[in-house]
């Protein structure tokens, strides 16, 4: 089976003339799945995309996470339209910002104070600055394969896009900056203790995706977050949770209060970075934390952070509307029900055709690893069959299913997916696994 994507091909050639690499984020390129033109989408509605050639796709990319209510959700679209009519950018405070801040605080109790920014990258970057200002220390400990955006400090041994493209460290980052970051394996408390023993006095913060979304979906092992928080705090370091993916993904709240993780009191961070879902599909980021830590931030304290676009009424309104949809009864349960149906079907199909497949599912999201071993850290996620993933990705695309073009990225269910979408996806998967074995 082959689907015509002639217009995507020609638009890609044109894009290459004007936009570096033809894409505005490297993870959108098809480099990790054999190259060639990415699909140029023209329209999206609910769980579906239509490309420039008129092909329809069931979407599990969800724009790398934010689109949890599906594309062009009517409640969010109405909110954005109303916001646009009232003016999109003020450069003054608005009541809307208070509303969204209160919603975030109510859902994530460790955040006494919030500040809105424009992206997850900005949010994470600033939590690091604030932690350094508060502790008057310099170094950061992070975990291999966790992706924290593209600011200098966190592009050291990062996962997600950079690992997909095989760039362990980005060019343009001075060694002097890279030496401020220590990377240890995820789920490895001994490694963390060793790093703290070596660098303790100078460690400002231990930063982690408490539930990983960037080398597949990976849960912390039992006791990992408790141990991490205790070790960091005993050392006088702060704990930063990057919840850009995980907040509002698994339940109405964040990993800090997720029922799949117990002992919530012992896993509270000092600072949290947010993005993606909280903007309802418009650009946003936010960070927040304990009052005494957040009071480091200007205009109250010496740590400077600002933004022309920060807290703009359009993004804030879309974020409020998105969270309102997520407050609906049974929303997460339904996404989970569909995801269980999908993952069970995928596993059975792969098994039937003898394709090794490990699926990590956490409620309404999951990752597919082409291997026959568990994936609990970045090394294990790397040790999987990238060529098999690339083949599967292309077969699925040709059968109208849009996945992220990387073996490390998750599949995201949305509130717009239906049983019919799952059944169509499973049919496409059955044909894809079969074709892979030929
Ligand atoms: N942190 C995490 C955990 C992420 O997954 C991402 C983006 N994938 C970021 C930070 C960066 O967010 P943004 O792309 O909005 O800058």
From TrEMBL:
Location relative to the cell: Cytoplasm
Coiled coil: none
Biological processes annotated in GO: protoporphyrinogen IX biosynthetic process
Catalytic activity: (S)-4-amino-5-oxopentanoate = 5-aminolevulinate
Any one annotated GO CC term: cytoplasm
InterPro entries given in the database record: 4pyrrol_synth_GluAld_NH2Trfase (IPR004639), Aminotrans_3 (IPR005814), PyrdxlP-dep_Trfase (IPR015424), PyrdxlP-dep_Trfase_major (IPR015421), PyrdxlP-dep_Trfase_small (IPR015422)
Cofactor requirements of the protein: pyridoxal 5'-phosphate
EC number: 5.4.3.8
Chief location: cytoplasm
Database matches in SUPFAM superfamilies: PLP-dependent transferases (SSF53383)
Broad class of enzyme this protein falls into: isomerase
GO molecular function: glutamate-1-semialdehyde 2,1-aminomutase activity; pyridoxal phosphate binding; transaminase activity
UniProt xrefs under Gene3D superfamilies: Aspartate Aminotransferase, domain 1, Type I PLP-dependent aspartate aminotransferase-like (Major domain)
Keywords: Aminotransferase, Cytoplasm, Isomerase, Porphyrin biosynthesis, Pyridoxal phosphate, Transferase
Annotated metabolic or biological route of this protein: Porphyrin-containing compound metabolism; protoporphyrin-IX biosynthesis; 5-aminolevulinate from L-glutamyl-tRNA(Glu): step 2/2
Residues recorded as bearing N6-(pyridoxal phosphate)lysine in the entry: 276
Family stated for the protein in its record: Belongs to the class-III pyridoxal-phosphate-dependent aminotransferase family. HemL subfamily.
Subunit description: Homodimer.
Record's protein name: Glutamate-1-semialdehyde 2,1-aminomutase
Gene expressing this chain: hemL
């Amino acid at each position: 089976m082959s689907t015509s994507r002639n217009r995507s091909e020609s638009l890609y050639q044109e894009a290459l003339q004007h936009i570096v690499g033809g894409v505005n984020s490297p993870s959108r390129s098809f480099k990790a799945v054999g190259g060639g033109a990415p699909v140029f989408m023209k329209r999206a509605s609910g769980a579906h995309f239509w490309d420039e050639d008129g092909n329809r796709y069931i979407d599990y990319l969800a724009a790398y996470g934010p689109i949890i209510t599906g594309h062009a959700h009517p409640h969010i679209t109405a909110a954005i339209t109303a916001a646009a009519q009232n003016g999109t950018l003020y450069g003054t405070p608005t009541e809307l910002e208070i509303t969204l801040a209160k919603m975030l605080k109510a859902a994530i109790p460790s955040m006494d104070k919030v500040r809105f920014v424009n992206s997850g990258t900005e949010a994470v970057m600033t939590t690091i600055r604030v932690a350094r200002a508060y502790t008057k220390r310099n170094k950061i400990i992070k975990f291999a394969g966790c992706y924290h955006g593209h600011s200098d400090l966190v592009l050291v041994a990062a996962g997600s896009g950079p690992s997909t493209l095989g760039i362990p460290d980005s060019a343009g980052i001075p060694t002097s900056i890279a030496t401020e970051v220590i990377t240890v394996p995820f789920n490895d408390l001994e490694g963390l203790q060793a790093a703290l023993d070596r660098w303790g006095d100078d460690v400002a913060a231990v930063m982690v995706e408490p539930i990983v979304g960037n080398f597949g979906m990976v849960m912390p092992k039992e006791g990992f977050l408790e141990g991490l928080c205790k070790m960091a705090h005993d050392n006088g370091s702060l704990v930063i949770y990057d919840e850009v993916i995980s907040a509002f993904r698994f339940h109405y709240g964040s990993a800090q209060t997720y029922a799949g993780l117990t002992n919530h009191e012992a896993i509270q961070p000092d600072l949290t970075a947010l993005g993606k879902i909280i903007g309802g599909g418009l650009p946003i980021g936010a960070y927040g934390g304990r009052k005494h830590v957040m009071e480091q931030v200007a205009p109250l304290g010496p740590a400077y952070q600002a933004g022309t676009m920060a807290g703009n009424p359009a993004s804030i309104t879309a974020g409020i509307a998105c969270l309102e949809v997520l407050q609906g009864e049974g929303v997460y349960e339904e996404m989970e029900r569909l995801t269980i149906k999908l993952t069970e079907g995928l596993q059975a199909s792969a098994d039937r055709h003898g394709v090794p497949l490990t699926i990590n599912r956490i409620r309404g999201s999951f990752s597919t690893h082409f291997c026959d071993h568990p994936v609990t850290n970045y090394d294990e996620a790397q040790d999987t069959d990238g060529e098999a993933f690339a083949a599967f990705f292309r077969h699925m695309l040709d059968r109208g299913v849009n996945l992220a073009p990387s073996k490390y990225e998750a599949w995201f269910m949305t509130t717009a997916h239906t049983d019919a979408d799952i059944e169509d996806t499973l049919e496409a998967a059955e044909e894809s696994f079969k074709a892979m074995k030929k």
